[in-house]
Amino acid sequence: MARLLVTGGSGFLGGLLVEDLLAEGHAVTSIDLLPGHARHPQLQGVVGDIRDRALLDGILSGGGFEGVFHCAALLAHGSVSEAEMWASNVEGTRSLAAATAAAGVPSLVYISSNCLWGRGFDRPVREDDPPEPCEPYGLSKWEGEKILAAHAGAFAATVIRSPTIIEEGRLGLLAILFEFIAEGRRVWMVGDGSHRYQFIYARDLIAAMRLAWRQRRAGIFGIGSDRVDTMRETFAHVIAEAGSTSRIVGLPKGPAVLAMRAAHGLRLSPLGPYHYRMIAADFTFDTARIKAELGWRPTLSNSEMLLRAYRYYAANQAEIAARCHVSAHRRAADMGVIRALKWIS
């Protein structure tokens, strides 16, 4: 049994990680801005802000913590401003890194993002490719990486650059797609859908996090599914397995991107610069390093994991619609102007 700290433990990924660590017999402390729903004799839930250094020092002061899993991150969606997102993601990481070092915790695993890039690649992205974020969230995750690099020697910092995380219960922007499929509406795609955009199954990501912590392996790793179908193939698989009457319709890329850019500028759409730059681009991580150094292997394909997420949505629509005071990935994103597109579908 180990004592472990999870930031963002009430969120989508953090909540799943907490469950797995408890099932393994570990003692877990979770810190989050929102209260969690899990109850367990080995779980201590703390409602608090990771920018609060005194709070973190108080949590870690007893000693004996063997690892920190840093899953907490705010998205600049809804009522969360860009300034608040930046302060939480950057200053929160700075505070957490300093507290981890001061307490002598030997390992910190940090979840970074493919939002470090705002363009597609015609090959898998490697760990030595220089980040080129195009919006504040990606910049905040990159800044977090640099903060951890400055603590090299104080603890083993593992950075896992993650694409979109998929599992039963993952909603957010995906809920918009799922609503279209559930109602048998046209599923609109920018371009012809021949691009490949990698996902990661949440349980596979958690397996990598646990391997990194156990091995105290410092470094940067890209992660993602091995079997990445085209987006048209992935959506078609979900539609067919769901028995939906939806059909996929391609939109001309140039005009569609211009429309998304304008809608975002007018605050009418949940799709930001990262989305409209990447929505019809190829993006996959090269996972050779994480396989070789951690002994990690993925299990599910893009199509398989997205179908699992859709089936959860279809079985729980009423309860999902009533949710409040949950993390951004546990509730459906506001469609904004996309709702108008729905009604002509």
TrEMBL record:
Top-level taxon of the source organism: Bacteria
Domain NAD-dependent epimerase/dehydratase: 5-219
GO molecular function: isomerase activity
Pfam families: Epimerase
InterPro entries from the UniProt entry: Epimerase_deHydtase, Lipid_A_modif_metabolic_enz, NAD(P)-bd_dom_sf
This protein's name: ADP-L-glycero-D-manno-heptose-6-epimerase
Enzyme Commission code(s) on record: 5.1.3.26
Enzyme class label: isomerase
PANTHER family: BIFUNCTIONAL POLYMYXIN RESISTANCE PROTEIN ARNA
Keywords from the UniProt entry: Isomerase
Keyword Nucleotide-binding assigned: no
Gene3D superfamilies: NAD(P)-binding Rossmann-like Domain (3.40.50.720)
Keyword Isomerase part of the UniProt annotation: yes
